[in-house]
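Morning. Coffee machine broken again, so started the prediction first thing and wrote up yesterday's gels while waiting. Chain of 213 residues, entered below exactly as on the submission form.
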Amino acid sequence: MTRIVLHDYFRSSASYRVRIALNLKGLAYDQHPVSLVANEQQSPEYKALNPQGFVPMVEIDGERVTQSLAILDRLDALVKEPPFVPSDPPGRAHVLALALTIACDIHPLNNLRVLRYLKNELGQPQEAVDSWYRHWVAEGLAALEALSAPQAGAFLYGDTPGMADICLVPQLYNARRLDAPLDAYPTLLRTEASALAIPAFAAAHPDAQESAQ
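Came back before lunch.
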């Protein structure tokens, strides 16, 4: 039996993606919490495993895989069903573009380490940090709404969940935590509702984690 260990933090949106993916694939895993608040990701012990000092990281029978989208791709190779990206090249490219809009364009600008740097090293007041967050979330989600709406069904692409939806749900969770307005994105909100009705998504929610603080 394949042994999977997930190193994650319950509120990390990238970690949330991987929990959803593991659940959708029906893969059992051991969870090793890494507190970002306590900077445990920067400990020598953790950085010996993952030199980047980020979560999530998975160990699959000892093989270490970092970066959430790389992990999703690895899980797709490990268990074929359900697939996270379509098999047809146009559909695959479209879903990857939607997922990367979140993972590369929205999320990095609003990562905890970026927000901490704005506040601590650059001396920005919390109001300015929150404004930064909401600006980049609004810009990214507006683009995602426009990109996804023409081919969306119950999910961002058709009627089955895939990589883009796995990225979307955690991003909307984080947006709500910082009171980012979401009413302008009906396609995204409809997709989120469809996803959260699936047990694999619901069980991955931060509030459902034993390490939730």
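The longest strand covers residues 4-8. Going to sketch it on the whiteboard this afternoon.
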